């Protein structure tokens, strides 16, 4: 199944007046709706519905950040008829409300610029558990490329929606080892944060990478992965979780604790 072609089709036609249905998408690509739905999720690591939802939230972010639209107008432009549904989904994806997004994004970028040339490791855990599960990760950038902050995390799906189960912000470094990973199946995702990036484009043009297969713990405990960071690819779903804001909040929390 050509995941790149299907995702590109969604990115192109989602905003048509005649919005594509699952049946229409399947027919366009020569599959039954059932086969498309099942195999797309198996290969991509997320469902077509989740991809469409992420594309809609990205559209909402763009309307707010690039065009200064109100939350209500952004919701309509993103294809939501219910402001409440848009607001709830927006916060679930990004970690911040649509109303506060511009202010928080700008504030986060300013905080990131202040930690330039520092060295540190910020670790996030969704729950406090004690296990023997570990995972070592190193990130590798193109020759001559200087990374600022690298965010690495384990997520339930290959779309980084919401907080990772376990995650880390690598400041001035490129590797880490996760410990006490809860039992379960996760995708390993990574992306960079640039100090100088425009807040409106910080998560659109950044380098990223993932491990294609789902990792299972405890089976994959002790594994080591080297991630070659790359530019965005056509088949990539949007990065909607605002990692600069998440990093800023952890920095401020550690400073106040």
UniProtKB/TrEMBL annotation:
It comes from the Bacteria. GO terms for molecular function: DNA-binding transcription factor activity; sequence-specific DNA binding. The keyword Nucleotide-binding does not apply. Keywords: DNA-binding, Transcription, Transcription regulation. InterPro entries: Homeodomain-like_sf (IPR009057), HTH_AraC (IPR018060), HTH_AraC-typ_CS (IPR018062). SUPFAM superfamilies: Homeodomain-like (SSF46689). Residues 4-104 form the HTH araC/xylS-type domain. Pfam families: HTH_18 (PF12833). PANTHER family: ARAC-FAMILY TRANSCRIPTIONAL REGULATOR, HTH-TYPE TRANSCRIPTIONAL REGULATOR EXSA. This is Transcriptional regulator, AraC family. It comes from Corynebacterium durum F0235. The lineage of its organism: Bacteria, Bacillati, Actinomycetota, Actinomycetes, Mycobacteriales.
């Amino acid at each position: 199944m050509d995941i790149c072609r299907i995702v590109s089709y969604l990115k192109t036609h989602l905003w048509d007046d005649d919005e594509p249905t699952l049946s229409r998408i399947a027919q366009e690509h020569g599959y039954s709706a059932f086969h498309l739905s099942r195999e797309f999720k198996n290969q991509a690591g997320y469902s077509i519905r989740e991809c469409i939802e992420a594309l809609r939230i990205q559209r909402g972010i763009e309307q707010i950040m690039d065009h200064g639209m109100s939350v209500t107008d952004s919701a309509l432009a993103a294809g939501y008829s219910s402001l409440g549904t848009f607001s709830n989904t927006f916060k679930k994806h990004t970690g911040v409300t649509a109303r506060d997004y511009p202010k928080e994004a700008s504030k986060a970028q300013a905080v990131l610029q202040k930690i330039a040339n520092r060295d540190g490791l910020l670790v996030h855990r969704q729950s406090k558990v004690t296990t023997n599960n570990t995972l070592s990760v190193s990130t590798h950038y193109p020759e001559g490329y200087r990374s600022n902050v690298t965010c690495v995390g384990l997520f339930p799906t290959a779309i980084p929606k919401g907080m990772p189960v376990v995650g880390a912000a690598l400041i001035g470094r490129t590797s880490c080892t996760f410990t006490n990973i809860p039992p379960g199946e996760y995708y390993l995702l990574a992306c960079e944060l640039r100090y100088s990036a425009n807040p409106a484009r910080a998560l659109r043009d950044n380098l990223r990478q993932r491990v294609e297969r789902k990792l299972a713990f405890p089976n994959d405990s002790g594994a080591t992965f080297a991630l070659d960071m790359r530019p965005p690819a056509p088949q990539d779903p949007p990065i909607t979780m605002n990692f600069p804001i998440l990093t800023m909040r952890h920095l401020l929390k550690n400073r106040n604790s």
